[in-house]
Design goal:
By secondary structure, the protein is of the alpha+beta class. It is built from two helices and twelve strands. It has two domains: 32 residues; 143 residues, Sandwich (Immunoglobulin-like), CATH 2.60.40. β3 and β4 form a beta hairpin.
């Protein structure tokens, strides 16, 4: 029976060893838990690009300057009358970056002016005025044209010059008055 006892002792020792390993593994194991909680706060930076400080306009020739209105997002010019070749009206105003982020012109689009003649020969008058009418936006400091991707650093102000001109010669005047509407541009500033 020694062999039976020996088998019993061996089985008991094996059970005891397996049990000991289980206890040893349990003693050496660790549960790791990741628990997150967070807050996303504002960086404190601000975005503020706007128009300001329009002047009353400067007239060249026999033009009538009309009036300019300005709010933070738009400049509107009404009532300009150009009577002869070389007549122009020039306005200056600021584009201000009062924010803390650099900006640039993301898109810049000139509107397509609409010319509306009156009386006989209205269509010919419209074509004549369309050929000789110009609208420009330039920077006052260097005379360069305003264009897409122009930058405006944080806390920077640039003065823009808006000029409406009638060019041509004495024989380029319409027979009757022609009104011009939808003249202007759209500047969209984005983060640089």
């Amino acid at each position: 029976m020694e062999s039976k006892t020996l088998k019993t002792v061996a089985i008991a020792a094996l059970v005891f060893a397996i049990g000991g390993l289980s206890l040893g593994f349990a003693a050496l194991s660790q549960v790791l838990t990741i628990d997150t909680s967070s807050t996303v706060q504002s960086s404190g930076t601000s975005w503020d690009v706007h128009f300001a400080n329009a002047d009353e306009g400067v007239v060249t020739g026999d033009a009538t300057k009309g009036n300019i209105s300005l709010d933070t997002t738009s400049v509107t010019l009404n009532g300009v009358i150009l009577k002869a070749p070389g007549d122009s009206v020039k306005y200056t105003f600021d584009v201000v970056n009062a924010g803390e982020l650099d900006a640039k012109i993301g898109t810049y689009e000139f509107k397509t002016p609409e010319f509306t003649g009156s009386g006989e020969g209205a269509e010919a008058d419209e074509t004549l005025v369309e050929t000789n009418y110009t609208y420009t936006l330039t920077y006052e400091n260097d005379g360069q044209a305003v264009k897409q991707d122009d930058t405006l650093a944080a806390s920077e102000t640039k003065t823009i010059v808006l000029t409406v001109t009638y060019s041509g010669s004495a024989d380029s005047l319409p027979t009757n008055s022609v009104s011009v509407s939808n003249s202007g541009a759209t500047l969209t500033y984005v983060q640089a």
